[in-house]
Amino acid sequence: MVFNWFRRQFSSNEQAAPATEEQSTATPPVPEPTPEEEQREPLQDSADYLSFAKAAYKNIQQRQAQTQSVVEPAQDAATTNEETSIEVVESETTYSEAETLPSEPITTEDEPQPSVVPESLPSEPVTTENELLISDEITVTDATTESLPFWARAEAERQARLERLKATAIEEPESVSATAAETPQVTDEALSIPGLAFDEGFLWSAEILAAQGRKPEDISIEEITWLKKLRQGLDKTRRNIVNQLKAIVGQGPLNQAAVLEIEALLLQADVGVEATDYVINALQERIKQEALPPEVAIAYLKEILRDMLDQPLKVHKATFAPEKDTLNIWLMTGVNGAGKTTTIGKIAHIAQKSGYKCLIAAADTFRAAAVEQVKIWGSRSGVDVIANPGQNTDPAAVVFDAITAAQSRNIELLLVDTAGRLQNKKNLMDELSKIRRIVDKKAPNAKIESLLVLDATLGQNGLRQAEVFAQAAQLSGVVLTKLDGTAKGGVALAVVRQLNLPIRFIGAGEGIEDLRPFSSYEFVEALLSS
Ligand SMILES: Nc1nc2c(ncn2[C@@H]2O[C@H](COP(=O)(O)OP(=O)(O)OP(=O)(O)O)[C@@H](O)[C@H]2O)c(=O)[nH]1
């Protein structure tokens, strides 16, 4: 099964067979609600959301069952970090701008087949009739929960819902299982697909996807897994600011004193002065018009944060995906330790799984260890690496060889790991602009992107570094890494506000699956969710 992360669309025909070029080319961009979806009544209350989650869960179970019957279970090497054998092409070119560039392509081995990795498969056969027998109606919250502020009430309702889920076992209708009589009493385990429990995280993730107009049958296990990881990754930030924020907002109509408390909280979360001023001014403008009850205040705050995160998309293109059947070259910049190499491995992994032919250029030749590290990530993601064996060799030569190899192999996405040292701005700028000149000369028709990899745990310090790169590298976006490692996830707002660059991907863990395309809606919901 190919899930195209860059398009966030899971089309049923891909389910039948690995996505072909045409299918994955045909997959529509990130799901804008279709006309019928726009007409569809938005889900109203938690009963709707529960039905949606139940339908989504059942669909995932059915897809797993179909996959199980078609494909032998296969370990996803990338997720078990087993290293698959890949080709490391040693590039011998020495390159100076004075010389004419060598023309003949490098001889290449057969392209290793991209690993189509079926998802991990459930153990027990699952049938289509399996119904999660959960009472659809949600019991009206009792008096105790009524007295809670709205966000705590939602939590209490969710807990009640979860208890209800646990209390109602799945009963296999007689027709479904010949051995129904011997079927042991269904326990909690039946409520979960291996690796995907029907739990609070699932319900929250399904709600987020439903609110974006998705249909239950479109929900994929990959998206649910990522949303759960994103929310978990933002736990530190949420605990740090959100509970205080909701306590402030929950006291009643938002007033001037509360707004000042919010200002202190945002600064504490590394949102930065510029972004904080923007949020506070927007809130103050709004409370001049009307006193905001808690749930309205939180909803309005979410809207302000989303608008701020989407601001750069007025200048930069909204969707960020490699163009199919053409050479895309993504230059990855950032200081050492920001997570560049890890990010290259993660992007290579989702590119492979999304049906793109990918190649990596190890052009950060300053440290031999950095080249070795890129090779390790290449083997984890099953993507070949073009590297130069020499110590401290010319990065431009590696880029040249990598483009030659990419062109001869019809590669669609070439990821270039560039130097990250900030020894001084001039050297950095010279090196990056030289690489850019080669790319423009050697691959004039390629789609070029230049991404800054930024360590979220550095907070405002990271931003000062980012400003140097922003001048040197003609950046078209940011990859924000280590969100799981900081209580200052607010730095995402500062990045966007101060650099006016869109966040394109976020990293929330050291594993190869811990990076996904950025969605402002999902980020803000994970940040402010109860
Ligand atoms: N917790 C967490 N750790 C991360 C994340 N991304 C990268 N790391 C870790 O950060 C450290 C640095 O990552 P690298 O990819 O080596 O950083 P780099 O920018 O390539 O640094 P150099 O290799 O020195 O150029 C490694 O230990 C990674 O495992 C993330 O999203 N979360």
Question: Topology, please?
Answer:
Layout: H1 12-16, H2 21-26, H3 35-39, H4 46-70, E1 88-90, H5 143-146, H6 150-167, E2 192-193, E3 196-197, H7 200-211, H8 221-233, H9 235-249, H10 256-268, H11 273-289, H12 294-310, E4 328-333, H13 340-353, E5 358-362, H14 368-381, E6 384-387, H15 395-408, E7 413-417, H16 425-442, E8 447-455, H17 459-472, E9 477-481, H18 491-499, E10 503-507, E11 515-517, H19 520-528
Parallel strand pairs: 1-6, 4-7, 4-8, 5-6, 5-7, 8-9, 9-10
Antiparallel strand pairs: 2-3, 10-11
The protein binds guanosine-5'-triphosphate (GTP).
The site of guanosine-5'-triphosphate has 21 residues, from helix 13 and helix 14.
Function: Involved in targeting and insertion of nascent membrane proteins into the cytoplasmic membrane. Acts as a receptor for the complex formed by the signal recognition particle (SRP) and the ribosome-nascent chain (RNC).
Biased composition (Polar residues): 9-27, 61-70
Family: Belongs to the GTP-binding SRP family. FtsY subfamily.
